[in-house]
């Protein structure tokens, strides 16, 4: 399944009139109750899940008859911006290069049980998700949302390894099961992410020394369980089938939750700051085997990354052009005008009780107090407090960090999705960002994300490479670093541009160059763009190994993509229940691919 974006009219240069013929053939074979978009949009929109296998079976019939010149492209209802240039949508400008969209926006069912497990349809957006939880659970459960906006797909974002700023910091970590239809459309399957079992196996392994037969057996079992999680990445791309539903594990809302923003003082070594936060992360860890911490996430952003959050592109300013990066002197001048520091930080914090919260703030003050300035904290306390009690609590917190500006906010407002994060997509838009209803696809914004992960010790070297490479290829040197795990730092840096074919190709070449440069310092892709998935040869080897070991070859309409992808045409991995077909035979082969334990590395690469 893919997150979706939108443009206005399809480009039909690749397949021409074959599109209309193929689409009309589809329409003629579908039952009357299957909703179909108009020819201008080239979209199939099932009303419910029962219609998905019907569509898949017809697609296979047409493919065998040579009447399906393009792939089906399953899409969630949401908009996961910038993952790649070629996101499909029922209005997408690039759909002719992708396939016939299978829009799952009507699959928006949700069901929450008493244990905090929620069944969620593929079409559910972040806004629908948060509203449902508010109604069903009040402030008992936390809606782990990202900054991508209310219309972003929850499930699409999770399968893309999306981020949130709450205690479960990666949406993917919250997934416990997927329901999907393989390409042949014959039956619905289920794959479970047996994380609890994997954690128990890891615990058992510690009882045995290296080389012990039982430790080797448990290690092999752990590899198998990790591979189940690895293969889920193929669902986001649509290679293994159509995801119709998922189960996610929600967490209880912590008693104390806060977001802290600050400016890094001039001259401070960001490498030191990152390391101090990882030390705090480790100090306040809640469970070693499934790392989570009262330090939920820490982010650093440079001036170029923060500027689009405060203004539209200054296209009328002397010395500035929409199709060139801002000159460094003008960038610094604009940042001064807007009060943006050279580097800005943001921290998400949570604590199960006020005693832990107070201790956490005391430790943060001691470790980073001399490194930052202009700190602003917004916090919530998840219990019924009178106005007087809130005042008392606020006073106690202010005594701990008197130099921080702090304010209390209703718990439900802190996890309400908003559009603020979308402003960066409009940075090179001639009209700028609208006041509301931001839709980068509809408004033809140019955006490609550079997402990489690697060792924290090389984080500033990574930031320097990203900034220099972006500038070299004509993009503003936007850099954001994010750390929410032990010893690793993520790069989340967008390329923004006027959306032309030349700029799109330039962004692709920039990504390729950046990919090769960052490998030398241990940084690898955090989710390769859809149109560049063969770029990582290690990922390529793994997918070829899986192809060789799957049990059943099926006629899969998803395999007819006109650009490279991890699976050979007309092949697919068949998954039965929770077991990946052929994985037992593939395990030893995969171990031989990389001495650095490829299985452990891959969850961070996808």
Number of helices: 19
The low-confidence parts are 1-16, 83-98, 545-606
CATH topology title of the domain at 254-532: Vanillyl-alcohol Oxidase, Chain A, domain 3
CATH class term of the domain at 254-532: Alpha Beta
Structural class: alpha+beta
The profile of the biggest β sheet is:
9 strands, mixed
Could you give the order of strands across the largest sheet?
12-11-8-10-9-14-15-13-16
CATH superfamily of the domain at 254-532: FAD-linked oxidases, C-terminal domain
- Shape field: globular
Radius of gyration of CA atoms, rounded to a whole number: 24 Å
How many beta-strand elements? 18
Give a verbal description of the structure.
- The protein has a domain at 254-532: 3-Layer(aba) Sandwich (Vanillyl-alcohol Oxidase, Chain A, domain 3), CATH 3.40.462.10.
- It contains 19 helices and 18 strands.
- It has helices at 18-29, 51-64, 126-137, 154-159, 171-174, 195-205, 213-231, 233-236, 270-283, 303-306, 328-338, 354-368, 387-400, 411-414, 459-472, 501-519, 537-549, 583-591, 598-605; strands spanning 71-75, 99-103, 110-112, 117-121, 175-181, 189-192, 242-249, 256-264, 295-302, 343-351, 372-381, 405-408, 445-455, 480-485, 488-498, 524-525, 575-576, 579-580.
- The protein has a nine-stranded mixed beta sheet with strand order 12-11-8-10-9-14-15-13-16. A five-stranded antiparallel beta sheet has the order 3-4-7-5-6. The chain has a two-stranded parallel sheet with strand order 1-2.
- It starts with 17 loop residues before the first helix and ends with a helix.
- Mean pLDDT is 73; it is low at 1-16, 83-98 and 545-606.
